[in-house]
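note to self: the first set is below, dont mix up w the second
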Amino acid sequence: MNIENLRHCNLGAFRTGSLYARAKRGLDLLGVAVMAPLILPMLGLLALLVKLDSPGPALYFQQRRGLGGKPFRIVKLRTMHMRAPPTGLAARREDAKTKTDDCRITRVGRFLRVRRLDELPQIWNVLVGDMSWIGPRPEAVELADWHAEEISFYSCRHLVRPGVTGLSQICQGHVTELALVRERLELEMHYLRNLSLGLDLLIAFKTLRVMLNGAGAR
């Protein structure tokens, strides 16, 4: 990943140094304290369903690009059948993409993805500071590095902590095609230029609606 791209971003257009941006970490931790009693019992039940549905662990870990382009391990409920990891960069990039009607997805996994419930374990990533509740959605390292090579200013999305949900998630859903990734980056730049409590609350509200109707899931 070319972190040098960060030098070319118009930092003055972004609100990453605003008072709200500095207070956001504290609000994230407050959100963890409030949400943990609701999320943890649900996670226990969902993890049991994952285990009963297909062989393998209930949790899935993957390397993703985070704040400043640094990699971190994201945690999710496993939604795909266990398989041998691919070898070769091209194969790993392809494997990191989730396709429409992907045959690798389990029965329970499809339900979890439609309702975005597979993301609930990321309360841990928020707690330890890898992620925020709301921000640009982190990508697998292989995809993030490829997109940084193909799309100008892509690395600017790493100026803030990635989010469990974000503006591009509620507007686009899951995308893999380069043209759509460019559109997603425009949405993320809009988020960075307008970073505020009001925008985050709007995204949180619309995320609940997306979880109910399942729009944009793969």
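second set (the one i keep forgetting abt)
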Amino acid sequence: MNWHILHIVIGLVAFILFVILQAVFINGLKLSFEKGDVLEWWPSLVKRVIANEYLRKPFYSCVKCMASLYGAATFWPCVIYLFGYKPVEIPVFIADVVILSWLNIFIYKRA
């Protein structure tokens, strides 16, 4: 077997597992922002700081929108720590956010 193909397959499997972990993390955050949970104070804090409703969505209210903010907060530290910054990571990040927003909706509707 060609070693380059094996590296690509391993990289894709690692990327898929990473996106799944991100989606579980974001959906867990979304559930923890509800009344009576650990982070129930977060939505009221964001409402006081950010007046526009659409700008508040990525912080706590929309799992599809949360993919951009929390996806970046989980993607970039991991990638820069493991690989350093290279411009090739920008399209990978865009793919990560697109896949993550779809997967977040899929998981949230099933839970």
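remember for set 2: The chain has one domain: 20-110.
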